[in-house]
Structure formats: C-alpha cells, structure tokens
C-alpha cells in the first residue's frame, strides 16, 4: 500500500502553524489565574472539617470555603493584569487569548460551581425539610445547577474567542455576563457567608444565624441566574477598559472613590453589593433600552420638525 504524499505547500503551511515563541511574563500571569482556580477547588474540597491557620499569623483562622473564595478573587486580579501586561510588552497573541480562556474555565467556571456545590452540601443537613425525599431532590437540583453553570461558562468563553478580536483594548462591552463577574457573584456570597456573618452572629444572635440560612438558599438560585446570563446577548460594559481609557467625568471619579472607600471599610459587603449591582445593571438596562431609544428618537425628531415649519404669519 502506497503512502499518500503530502503537498509541499500544505506541509510548509503546517510548519508555519507550529508555535515557536511565546510571551513569558503575560503567560505566567495567566497561568497564575489557572493556579488560583485549581487551588480554590482543592481548598473547597476540604469543607468545614478543617480551618486554615497560617503559622505566620497566630490567632488568625479562616474556613477553607472562604479561602477558596479569596483564591478565585486573586485569579480575577491575575485575569485583569495579564491583558494589560501583554499590551504594555506588545506581546498580544492568539496563544495568549486561548490560554486565558482555558484558565478562566477553571477559575470562573469549574471552581465557583464546585465551591457552591460543596457549601450547600455541607449545610444541607441543617436545612429543615418536611420530607427526606425533598432533601434528596434539592441536593440533586443543586448538583445540576452547578453543572449548568460550569457548562454555560465554557460555552460563553468559547463564543467570546470566536467573536472577539485579539486586542483587548477594543473591548468596551460584552455580549452576556462576563465569566469573572458571574464567578464573583457566587464567591462574594460564599465569603460573606463564611467570613463575615459568623463574626456578627456571635454578637448579634439569632437574626444573623437565620440570614446565614437565607444565603445558602439564595446561592443555587443566583448561580443558575449567573450561568444563564453568561450565554445571553444582554450587553454588559467592560468596567476596567471604560474607566482606564481616556478622560472621564467627575462623577465617574467620585464613583470610583466611593467604591474604594467601601472596599476599605468592609470588603465582604462591598463585593456582594458590587457584583449584585453589576448583574442587575445589565438586566435593567436591557429592559429599559427600548424606552430610552424611543425617547431619544422622539427628542431628535422634534427639532427637525420645528425647522421645517414655516414662521408664524408667513403663507
């Protein structure tokens, strides 16, 4: 049997496609994002049985659920930095874009879904169901919600790679909720539940203990909403590019200043409010956009109609 000969032109093109050079620094920052996501999965798998107590900070302790959440936020910081580092070093490439999406699938797709699933599983025993079958049904529903969220994140990242350009500076808006804010919505609630409410419930009593249960009930619902919003076409602004690009109004400066002060005052509350407001902003703007466009169109048509009218007294 004769071996099929390959056209020399096709063979040359195949050689050109082989990756020879990569940008080291942006790739390392991107891999840090993936490393944070993988670490978050490892920490979340430990649950509430053990508590993280660093040797350098005696007396400090944190649940591994909260630590997993903070690792995902650290991955978000790396995700913001890698694109800027690539542009500063003038080393943007298709390889960097694909690597970024693969790491995002871990940090903002699999890790938040797994974290939500493990947290609800731990507290499923404490949730009071009138029937054991309802408890099993709720557990299965949470499992499928975690799968739906993870799959929606992967689909959203694949669609983003196909439809967008390499240069991230051109991105001023997104079609659908971006994966980092979607993950931030879930993770901020987990951190709020694990790192903020327990400290207050020790002093305030039953009200905040009941609020802890409410957060556990809310997590699967918000996870499902975030997953579905990622695959919609609802426009969301690219906050970082919009703020850092060009001169802005004084009101934008005040908003950024207020956000920074809120982060300094209480980072847990600031994260929950920030991600919830961002998610609702896109939905409300999408619903109101037909009304806003109609009002703008009518306001433009009125001056045009006035210019075509004849002056008073002229026949």
Summarize the structure.
The protein has 315 residues and is mostly helical. It contains 10 helices and 4 strands.
Kindly describe this structure.
The protein is 74% helix and 3% strand. It is mainly α and 315 residues long. The protein has one domain. It has a two-stranded antiparallel ribbon. A two-stranded antiparallel ribbon has the order 3-4. The longest helix has 42 residues, at 267-308. The model has no long low-confidence stretch (mean pLDDT 77).
Structure keywords:
two-stranded antiparallel sheet, 315 residues, mainly alpha
- DSSP E strands, number: 4
Number of helices: 10
Sheet bearing the most strands, described? 2 strands, antiparallel
Helix content: over 70%
Distance between the termini: 95 Å
Which term fits the overall shape?
Answer: globular
Please state the average pLDDT score: 77
The total number of structural domains is 1
